[in-house]
Design a protein that fits this description.
Blueprint (H helix, E strand, L loop, with lengths): L5 H63 L1
């Protein structure tokens, strides 16, 4: 994960604990989780919209070709 080992992750967690305190950590984790969830939801929506437009595109081309014949 990002080229970090176990010792580096523990050190980062200790620094975060010192900076924000034990009281704020659950709030920070909750906010981070919500942000990641929202990002994934938006990413999925964009992907679905892209796939839908790609699926509709050949149908439009076939309809245009058929009407020209």
């Amino acid at each position: 994960m990002f080229g970090l080992g176990g010792q580096e992750l523990v050190l980062i967690l200790l620094i975060v604990l010192l900076l924000f305190g034990a009281q704020k950590l659950p709030e920070l984790a909750k906010g981070l989780g919500k942000g990641m969830k929202e990002f994934k939801r938006a990413q999925n929506e964009i992907e679905e919209e892209f796939n839908k437009s790609m699926d509709d595109n050949p149908k439009k081309e076939k309809a245009t070709t058929a009407s020209k014949s």
